[in-house]
């Protein structure tokens, strides 16, 4: 049975930091880069909703069904987005990767691929997961193409 706990994951210039309240300002600035809350096919909070977003993520962590990260670009020190494991089912060694978003200036760069590789490696190699799902909205075609670019296959 897997035991998912917050962990710092790092590769190249990208670090996934276990989300804390201290990430608020960086996450709010990242969401503002591109006004991501205006995208109808994804759920990114407006800067004024970031405290509630973090609070919900941390509550999910305490309840054992989420493990959220803030994404930091080490080359600039800037928080550029967020991602998490969710729908964690320890009894069947399963997690899903989702709630992923990046500031507009970091979209279509190495950031997403690096984060997904970190999360997949951690899930399979460290946690011992048997199944890792990647979830995105049916209408988020950009995200679907990125997931397919990792070699994942559409399941539903």
Taking the alpha carbons of the first and last residues, their distance comes to 26 Å
Q: Helix-strand pattern, N to C?
A: EEHHEEEHEH
Query: Which range best describes the helical content: under 10%, 10-25%, 25-40%, 40-55%, 55-70% or over 70%?
Result: 25-40%
SS strand fraction: 25-35%
Summed over residues and divided by their number, the pLDDT gives a mean of: 91
Strand order of the largest sheet: 1-2-3-4-5-6
Low-confidence blocks of residues: none
> How many helix segments?
4
Number of strands: 6
Radius of gyration over C-alpha positions, nearest whole angstrom? 15 Å
Largest β-sheet summary: 6 strands, mixed
Assign an overall shape: globular
Seen as an oligomer or otherwise, the chain set is: single chain
Describe this entry's structure for a reader:
By secondary structure, the chain is of the alpha+beta class. 31% of the residues lie in helices and 26% in strands. Strands 1-2-3-4-5-6 form a six-stranded mixed sheet, sandwiched between helices. The longest helix is centred in the C-terminal third of the chain and has 18 residues. The two termini are 26 Å apart. The model has no long low-confidence stretch (mean pLDDT 91).
